[in-house]
Design brief:
The protein has 12 helices and 12 strands. The chain is α/β, with parallel strands linked by helices. The strands form 2 sheets. It has a 6-stranded mixed sheet with strand order 2-1-3-5-6-4, with helices on both faces. Bound molecules: 2'-monophosphoadenosine-5'-diphosphate.
């Protein structure tokens, strides 16, 4: 039997996942004898699948929708980020054979921001996050860890924003969805985590002109790569950061755990994944 390490992405459905394109690129690039495949696993089968990962021939996995919260419950040990975010997206078996879990979405978001807009932290007293789903949770964790003192959180369904604000505490302040434009003039960073602007969805309606001239605007949507929000921000001369970089960077820690090489996010990797969009 081959001893080449194998990892997978577990989802339901999983067909749309770009993770095989990312990890497949790195395996070939670093000349590693390993594999990364898709596993479609239904929610009722997920806990059993995860707890017998090695029997299925895997050293680890990415976990995607709808399993990220269930993965937190299923791992034997979850790191600080996973516990704060309430979800696991990366699992691996440690040297004792215990199943460990992490959430690398906050790491991916922050690393992408740091590499695409290196000055973004300068004078970043206020950031605004749009949306209150799983991605918003990860991004709030990242921004709080980075020490951003004030984060305005706004969401169409205000109760979901209030829950997040309660979970994350002081730096997070809820702004009613209807009032978001009037809070923009103080924001050095604007983050869209809603699905608005995604292909097939309506664009996000927000007054980009109200942002300060040094604002950085980022979207976690990456289909299209340049959302209407990013296009408008760019046309206004603002710094923009697209969502694909977050996806690429969040994959780094998992690859290193499973295959023993810390991979690089390069323009060539990006071009490879863009070709699959
Ligand atoms: P994810 O886990 O990727 O964050 P999600 O949990 O489905 O995804 O969250 C999607 C986000 O997009 C939510 O904040 C959602 O707002 P609601 O909480 O009010 O549902 C937001 N969203 C989706 N469609 C929207 C729309 N037409 N207008 C405003 N917000 C929208």
């Amino acid at each position: 039997m081959s001893t080449a390490p194998r990892a997978c992405v577990i989802g339901w459905p999983v067909e749309h996942s770009r993770s095989p394109a990312i990890h497949g690129y790195w395996l070939a690039h670093y000349g590693i004898d390993g594999a990364y495949v898709k596993e479609a696993v239904a929610p009722e089968d997920f806990p059993a699948f995860l707890s017998s990962l090695s029997k299925h021939g895997y050293v680890g996995a990415n976990v995607t929708l709808p399993h990220k919260e269930a993965a937190l419950r299923a791992v034997q040990e979850a790191d600080t980020a996973a516990r704060a975010i309430g979800a696991v997206n990366t699992v691996w078996l440690d040297e004792r054979g215990a199943l460990r879990g992490s959430n690398t979405d906050a790491y991916g978001f922050m690393t992408n921001l740091d590499s695409s807009a290196p000055d973004w932290r300068e004078g970043c007293d206020v950031a605004m996050v749009l949306g209150a789903g799983g991605a918003a949770r990860a991004i709030l964790h990242g921004l709080i860890e980075a020490g951003i003192p004030r984060i305005l959180l706004t969401n169409r369904t205000v109760a979901k924003a209030e829950t997040l604000a309660r979970d994350f505490g002081d730096p997070v302040e809820v702004v009613p969805w209807e009032d978001k434009d009037s809070a923009l003039s103080a924001c050095r960073l604007l983050v869209n985590t809603t699905s608005l602007g995604m292909a097939g969805q309506p664009p996000l309606d927000i007054m980009v002109t109200a942002l300060p001239a040094n604002a950085v605007v980022t979207d976690i949507v990456y289909v299209p790569l340049e959302t209407p929000l990013l296009a408008e921000a760019r046309a206004r001369g603002l710094t923009t950061v697209d969502g694909l970089g977050m996806l690429l960077h969040q994959a780094v820690p998992g690859f290193e755990r499973w295959f023993g090489v810390r991979p690089e996010v390069t323009p060539d990797l990006r071009a490879h994944v863009v070709a699959t969009l």
